[in-house]
Design a protein that fits this description.
By secondary structure, this protein is an alpha/beta fold. The protein has one domain: Cytosolic phospholipase A2 catalytic domain (3-Layer(aba) Sandwich). Helix content is about 35%, strand content about 15%. It has helices at about 10-20, 35-40, 85-100, 110-120, 125-135, 150-155, 160-170, 175-185, 205-210, 215-230, 265-270, 305-335, 360-375, and strands at about 50, 75-80, 105-110, 190-195, 200-205, 240-245, 245-255, 285-290, 340-345. Strands 1, 2, 3, 4, 5, 6, 7, 8 and 9 form a nine-stranded mixed sheet that branches. β4 (about 190-195) and β5 (about 200-205) form a beta hairpin. α3 runs parallel beside α13 (about 360-375) and α7 (about 160-170) crosses α10 (about 215-230). About 45% of the residues are buried.
């Protein structure tokens, strides 16, 4: 079942409907212009982010020379999906235990996938950390509701502090330093946020942030992760300070999923057949861990506001994710990249009143773990019907 927004969609929608007549009571922000937004940079962190829909040339400016490798290039994209992130965690754990999990050249994450991505990037040493976060029940503590009035009139229905505390506890200076080491080897870690002011997805080069050696790098790194995982209306958006022409502005960043459920390549590259691709791309492997069920799920819908909106939104997210995967598949087909997709392929009961219910999270963890352990997880085409695909030879 689609779980976006993750945090009790029914409650969020009900509260937002009530709040429509009370809109406008949050604190004012300092205004800035579209031109300001276009040229804004994070102070001390040049070239660490790009708009996902930017020109291809913007993404060619980096950076670290890559050492030629006799092995095929490996790319891992981890989608949004809230509690469904336990599916990816189970798959990664079984992949490690199977003994053939690659060291990925590139890892990207969106929303819950952004929280998983740094640990997936660093490899099996952090499998137990991810399993604890996604199956022990600690995720249930993330939901601390504000008093009803401040929730409706303020920044969000839930406090941000529990999510930030979790990130601060596990994304430590040691983690940052290890990411920096891998970045200098030529490996990449990307996270997507949505800039609410510009309505553009922003792709953050997390390895470059980690390798900057700046004392404020850890704070920026954590803020980007929290922003990407902050469902609008449920958690507050994250203010990120930027500068333009010596003037400070405050950007507002939130969940990356409204911009894209997955990150593959810059949007311009999906349609531009004239882009010159590095030799390492052809024959590469692109893996997609999708933390949702994308097959249609029948349910008789009550003809009232919240159920209708909830059901329609779930359909929208499924469609958005499928279209992104179709585009990724066509890019892979055109460029000679091997496409491998894993998706929650069985319906699992999900209770919207318990968005981080441990029963659900352990169930989808087991699906991911079992499918990977049995060698039956990967689909070579974006097919979303129920059932388990045949074992994929060569997906190593």
């Amino acid at each position: 079942m689609i779980k976006l927004p993750t945090f009790c969609l029914r409650g969020v929608l009900s509260s937002l409907i009530i709040a429509l007549g009370l809109f406008g009571c949050t604190s004012a922000r300092e205004p800035y212009s579209r031109d300001d937004a276009r040229g804004a940079e994070i102070p001390g962190f040049a070239n660490v982010r790009k708009p996902l829909d930017g020109e291809v040339g913007l993404f060619a400016k980096k950076r670290v020379p890559r050492t030629p490798s006799p092995l095929r290039h490996k790319y891992l994209a981890i989608s949004g999906g809230g509690a469904g992130g336990a599916f990816s965690v189970g798959a990664l754990k079984a992949w490690s235990q199977r003994g053939d999990r690659p060291t990925f050249d590139v890892v990207s994450g969106v929303s819950t996938g952004a929280l998983i991505a740094p640990f997936a990037f660093l490899g099996p040493d952090y499998d137990d950390t991810l399993e604890h976060l996604y199956t022990s029940g600690v995720a249930e503590d993330l939901l601390q509701r504000r008093p009803i009035i401040s929730g409706l009139l303020g920044e969000s229905l839930y406090y941000q502090k529990p999510l930030m505390n979790m990130v601060e506890q596990h994304v430590t200076q040691e983690v940052l330093d290890r990411i920096a080491v891998e970045y200098r080897k030529g490996r990449d870690l990307f996270v997507l946020t949505t800039n609410l002011d510009t309505q553009r997805g922003m792709l953050w080069d997390m390895g470059a942030i980690a390798a900057s050696s700046r004392p404020d790098a850890l704070n920026l790194f954590r803020n980007v992760l929290v922003a990407s995982a902050s469902i609008p209306g449920a958690f507050p958006a994250v203010k990120i300070i930027a500068t333009i022409d010596g003037r400070t502005i405050s950007e507002l960043h939130s969940d990356g999923a409204p911009s894209s459920q997955i990150v593959t390549v810059p949007e311009a590259m999906l349609s531009d057949t004239n882009v010159s691709l590095p030799a390492v791309i052809r024959g590469a492997d692109m893996y997609f861990l999708i933390n949702n069920t994308l097959m249609p799920e029948f349910s008789v819908t009550s003809n009232s506001t919240v159920p209708v909106v909830t059901r329609a939104y779930a359909s929208l997210v499924k469609s958005q994710t499928r279209q992104s995967l179709y585009a990724a598949y066509e890019y892979c087909r055109r460029t000679g990249v091997n496409f491998h997709m894993a998706v929650i392929d069985a319906p699992v009961p999900y209770n919207f009143s318990q968005p981080f219910g441990n029963v659900y999270m352990r169930a989808v963890f087991k699906i991911g773990y079992d499918r990977m352990e049995q060698g039956r997880i990967w689909r070579q085409k974006p097919i979303f019907t129920p059932g388990v695909p045949q074992a994929l030879s060569g997906a190593r």
